[in-house]
Amino acid sequence: MSKLLDRLYEKSPILLQELALNGYALGIHFERFGREFHDLLEYWHKTEWFSHSDLIELQNEKLRALIKHVYETVPYYQKIMKERKLTHVDFKTVNDLYKLPVLTREDVRLNLDNLISSKFERSKLRHGHTSGTTGSPLQFYWDKHCCLVNNVADWRQKNWAGLNYGDKYAVILGRTIVPISQENPPFWRMNYLHNQLWLSAFHMTEENLRFYLEKLEEYEPLVLEGYPSTLFILAKYLTSHNKTFSLKAALTSSETLHEAQRGIIEKAFCCPVFDYYGLAERTIFTTECEKHCGHHINMEYGIVELMNNSGEPVGKDKMGKMVGTSLHNYGMPFIRYATNDVSSILPVSCSCGRELPLMSDVTTKAEDIIVTRDRGYISPSVLTHPFKPLNGVKASQIIQEDINHIIIKIVRTPEYTKENTRLLLDAMKKRLGNNMDIDIQFVESIPRTSAGKFRWIISKVPLQL
Ligand SMILES: [Zn+2]
């Protein structure tokens, strides 16, 4: 009897945790997966085949309604429009957007109250915040419809990847679903309502990965979703044990997906990777289709502009900072919201036939780009190559201290040799130029951010666009 009680005691916190997770899932279920969700998703599967001019027309119509709404109900924009002698009729198409200023993080921080529409009660809005990977977290609000649209954008891509609502899938994202202090399995919790297995991103040690794999083999998900870094850890584990785990697709987001990571994940899981880019501020959503030629801009979701540091638009195929306008968050409208993320619009159309424009498949934080005197800007993907031939590197991180100096942190395995260091330095010099001082530091581990994300490159040198 006492044995049974002991077992019940051990089990109950996990049962309670699963109950809490399923309670949360139930709470959002009707709002995010109700009739409206399925109808809108069906509509988006029609609009994805619209011609580019019809998509622009769809944006124009939504923009006119949004500007009328902010003109009538959002104090922050009422003030600006009054100062600039504008009314909502001055905005007929997306080409009129320039008449409003860019909205910065600082503007949001300072004008939080005035950015909320008087038509909405703040207590009825959903509270959101950025993870604060670069600086302090930013607070803001979404209305219900905006949350629904976000879910539609998310599921349209899941459909592109072959996952349909109700199919089994597993996720390894940043939510702490398993207490950090827990030392033994299960390192996962089950969301029964959405057929979703949540695996912890914070317990992925070499010793624990065996349990992760056993659980995945038992659960047999069609799709695995995670940060590039979490899927990469699992893929590396599989590769080093000469194993594979077959999936229909792997979905990644929230961190830059480097080319080398993509290759290893695809091999280990015998499937293509579908990467997507979204912002907590919900102004921009870009998704990869089955052709994997870049990320399609979800034009139904928001308007994307690319700018240089002076706020001028950059041409196609040129790098610029991404500025986004949400067409759906009427509770707290974000118009021309500037991110610190850098990408480019590709000058080609996708062979899938969709006319949603393509962005480069690498969208990088400005502070993830290395700046050099000899070679200009170096994208993180380029720097993954020098690591490819090294078998003794378990994890690495590159920190640019100033224009002439980078530090490479390395977590070694016993296979690491002096030859590895020589190869790495040679290959890095080739890409960064001879004027770059490169220090290699061996460390025990590389910390994740508080949101569980991993930043492979941290540059402290500002980017001049
Ligand atoms: Zn496509």
Explain what you see:
This protein has a domain at 369-459: GMP Synthetase, Chain A, domain 3. The chain is 32% helix and 21% strand. It contains ten helices and 21 strands. The strands form five sheets. The chain has a nine-stranded mixed β-sheet with strand order 4-5-3-6-7-8-9-10-14, with helices on both faces. Strands 11-12-13-15 form a four-stranded antiparallel β-sheet, with no helix packed on it. The mean pLDDT is 89. The protein binds zinc ion (ZN).
Features:
globular, binds zinc ion, 465 residues, alpha/beta, 32% helix, 9-stranded mixed beta sheet, GMP Synthetase, Chain A, domain 3
What is the topological layout?
Elements (H helix, E strand, L loop, with lengths): L1 H31 L2 H13 L4 H22 L1 H9 L21 H6 L15 E4 L9 E4 L1 H17 L8 E4 L15 E4 L4 E4 L6 H14 L3 E4 L1 H13 L8 E4 L6 H11 L3 E6 L6 E4 L6 E3 L4 E6 L12 E7 L10 E7 L14 E2 L4 E2 L4 E3 L3 E3 L14 E10 L2 E8 L5 H15 L4 E6 L14 E3 L6
Parallel strand pairs: 3-5, 3-6, 6-7, 7-8, 18-21, 19-20
Antiparallel strand pairs: 1-2, 4-5, 8-9, 9-10, 10-14, 11-12, 12-13, 13-15, 16-17, 18-19
Bound molecules: zinc ion.
The site of zinc ion has 6 residues, from loops.
Provide a short characterization of the protein structure.
The chain is built from ten helices and 21 strands. By secondary structure, the chain is α/β, with parallel strands linked by helices.
